[in-house]
Each structure stands twice: as C-alpha cells, then as structure tokens.
Amino acid sequence: MLSIMRNLRQKLAKTRSGFIGRIAEAIRLRGKVDEELMDQIEEILLRADTGVHMSEVIIQRLTERIRVDRIEDAGVVQDVLQEIMQDILLSDEEEDAEEPDFFAEVNAKPYVVVFVGVNGVGKTTSIGKIAHRFKEMGKSVLIVAADTFRAAAIEQLEIWAQRSGAAFIKSAANADPAAVVYDGVNSAMARGVDIVLIDTAGRQHTKDRLMQELTKIERSIQKLIPDAPHQTLLVLDATTGQNAISQASHFDQAIKLSGLILSKYDGTSKGGIIFNLRHTLQLPLKLIGVGESINDLENFRIKDFVAAFFSKDPSEENHEAELDETDLE
Ligand SMILES: Nc1nc2c(ncn2[C@@H]2O[C@H](COP(=O)(O)OP(=O)(O)O)[C@@H](O)[C@H]2O)c(=O)[nH]1
Ligand SMILES: [Mg+2]
Description:
Layout: H1 2-11, H2 13-18, H3 20-30, H4 35-47, H5 52-68, H6 74-89, H7 92-96, E1 111-116, H8 123-136, E2 141-146, H9 151-164, E3 167-169, H10 177-191, E4 195-200, H11 207-224, E5 231-237, H12 242-254, E6 259-263, H13 273-280, E7 285-289, E8 297-299, H14 302-310, H15 314-328
Parallel strand pairs: 1-4, 1-5, 2-3, 2-4, 5-6, 6-7
Antiparallel strand pairs: 7-8
The structure holds guanosine-5'-diphosphate (GDP) and magnesium ion (MG).
C-alpha cells in the first residue's frame, strides 16, 4: 500500500510542482496571510484549470477558515487548503465508503467495456494498460478494434494486445465498426472470455456520424447481451483542460457513459482539472493515466490521490521508504 502511494507520488511529481508546488511557493514568498496571498492562490488555481466556479468555492472556504481560526501563520494555509480540497472531492457518502476498485467491479461474463473519446486522448493506451491489469488478475481478455477509421490505429492496438497477452479481433480498415463489435462479443461468448475491451474511433467525417456509429456499436452489443455494455468509459486528456469538459458533454449526449478515465495526469500543469470535472460532470472518475508504460494507470482514490498530491516534504518520502522496507519483512 505504501509503495503504491510512493509510486503515485513520483508519477505526480511534475503535476504537483506545476500546481500545488506553485501554491506552496506563493505562500512561502508572501510569508503572510492577506488578500494579496488569496488573489495569488486563486490565480494559480485558475491557471491549473480548476475552473472559475471551483476556484471561487475553494478561496471562499479558505478565507472563511482563516477568519474563523484566526490563521496568521502562512505555513498553516497549505494544510488548510489540503483539507478543503479533499472535502470538495469527497462527497459525504464517500467519506466512509470503501475505496473504489475498477478491476473488482466485474459482475458479468463476458464483462463488456466500451472506450470512447476524441483522437489522441489515450484510448488505445488505456485499453492496453487495463488489459494488462486484468491479465495479471488471471482473467482472459479480448480486445476488439472497432476504430477502423485508420489502419494505423488497428496496428497500434494490436501491439498493446500482444504486450498485455490479450486476444485480439480486428477487421479490414474501414470495415463497419458495429459488425466488428458484434463478431468480437459473439466470439467472446463462444470462447468463455472474461473481459471484452472495445476501442472506438475518435474521429469521423462529421460529429453526427461519429455519434451514430457509437449508437450502432451499442446496439450490436445489446443484440447479444441486452444489459451490456457494462461500462462505457470516456477517456479525457488532462492536458487539454476546459476542452475536456466540453468533450464530455458531447459524448454524454450520444452514448450513456458510466465513468471517466483521465489520461496524461503525469506532467501536466493543469492538475486542477480534477476539481473542475467533479463540479461540472455527474460522472465518476474511475481511473487516471500517469504515464506511457503498461503499469501507468491507477484507480482514482481520492484520499490516496490528495495525500500523494500534497506531499511536500522530501524527508517524509524517505521516512516512508524506510516504512516500506519494514513492511516487506
Ligand atoms: N504521458 C502520458 N502519455 C499518455 C498517457 N496515455 C496516453 N498517452 C500518450 O498519448 C498519445 C495518444 O494515445 P493513444 O492511446 O494513441 O490515444 P487514442 O487516439 O485516444 O487511442 C500516445 O503517444 C500515448 O503514449 C498517459 O497517461 N501519460
Ligand atoms: Mg487509438
């Protein structure tokens, strides 16, 4: 557990320094608690894509705490900010709830997951990482290449299938995606496959066509399994900020989404997007991508995440490294 935390901490190092690190720096340089400091923090929140509304909420709560607790020590401000941000991310039910685990949610066989999102957001990469995780759990996985718009997309997905040891179903480029999906799900049922991961195209000639295509894909799955897909996940790229939010509402109109994957959360200065998503969309953030390698995907667990995000003291990390070793004994 501790090593997962440390790992996440390292992966988030750049995101942290571009966001929380800037706030810490502003607090240190200002050295006192005043309106100017609040303005600076608000500006950093806005630049990190926290969104106008969320940034205001955070600053209001911070100002209130400073007033009520009579906080004069700038050093305390960051701790209070951490508490406020965690409160915002955690709804009351989640406060005591068990930590969510996407990989433990599987409750059907085959368990069918559709991935949607615009080009380049990280759909194919996320599928590869997820296939790998399920394979490690001993599940059989079939990846279906329904992004038939570009031959290169099919090849790239096939490489991820090989890497993760998943089975793979494809068709010729430009074949009907809904037909490929039908064949894929059909063969998964015949072969007793546990998990089916379906990649879709992020682009079509027009937006309407893309949306029609997604509807068709959904229908061809339901011909075989009426209550599938069991998950329809929208992949969003953390580095695109506000744009990610508008993509989400477009896709949400075309196909019923069950959750989000936020990719590229490593190395973005737009870390505030998490708060913005939380406020704007009614969809749970299930997984975050934190790099390009096969293991760079984590369940989004708010407490772990906030702790990893706010860790500021390198000596604390050393301390935890020691704890890790004792853990192993
Ligand atoms: N740093 C980083 N890069 C990522 C992550 N996920 C995907 N990428 C990169 O983003 C690019 C587009 O990913 P791809 O999976 O092809 O996107 P798709 O078009 O939606 O299928 C590739 O270069 C990936 O290596 C991530 O979590 N972190
Ligand atoms: Mg792709």
